[in-house]
């Protein structure tokens, strides 16, 4: 059950916002008139919030995406470019710019907003808009033909988005899906959902409120991404993705009653680093952390530091958690890591030693219980490692 929850948890909020946005769009006819009238203001508020948080938390990529969505919304809703008779070309141009820039900013590194790199991105966006304005104003035929080009025969009016833009949306989604694996499940899903929300806003163009509605949900999603990233920086270990020592400290302050703390150490970890290099050592840490996330019995794992981890079992006794720790120890030992050197592949495995202690009359505070668990860990090592000691 816990393994299944760990798999679906990162996807719940991003996908939920896409579904909620579409459901709200379908029910707009039944919404109060005052809410519908204020939709554009709400959308602007969410996009502005994303930009402000992007500045505050130094999330330049999302800042520029929110900025571009704001410019797009103002252009489509208020017609700020003042090009009479060019509404279709303006819409198609923004439909082309959005997926391309979403992909661009996804691929770029965080280099600040009010820096040389940030200012260069301002310039790129400005040049894109000025060039687009010039091409539309002068009726540049090669450009307009690209917007109207049809490669796949489809029913007339099936989508107001030009096929070249559909291609960009598709390519952006494919690239984000495959490159996003290194950034974690949440960020990959969130950026894919951001792309989907923008696509829905453009695809439902026949309803003029589709832009503020879906772009507003895009703003909400960007706020969620920024807050999640800030939380991850503060409370998650960057290498393994496990809750960090700060998160462990906060959890210890909440403990009361009966609880168990386990201290874990990767056996012969220094040997892995010395023999195979620090990159393999990092992979071993990730391998062990992935196993600890699946610990049963109500335990929650934290990276304590180096090759050490901690697990807290609230409202449990040692007798209750020992079977779960033994199962964890066996599952980690069974995991394999493929080490590639030239054309040779070596299957590596690691083991862990575990020390366990419970709050009782002798160990009354979390600090005392943790020290007792640490001493038990040393006893496990003295016994030959790859075992659990109390």
Automatic annotation (TrEMBL):
GO terms for cellular component: plasma membrane. It comes from the Bacteria. Keywords: Membrane, Transmembrane, Transmembrane helix. SUPFAM superfamilies: Nucleotide cyclase (SSF55073). Residues 257-390 form the GGDEF domain. It holds the Pfam family GGDEF. The chain crosses the membrane at residues 12-28, 34-55, 62-83, 89-108, 115-136, 156-178, 185-202, 214-236. GO terms for biological process: cell adhesion involved in single-species biofilm formation; negative regulation of bacterial-type flagellum-dependent cell motility. GO terms for molecular function: diguanylate cyclase activity. This is Diguanylate cyclase (GGDEF)-like protein. It comes from Brevibacillus fulvus.
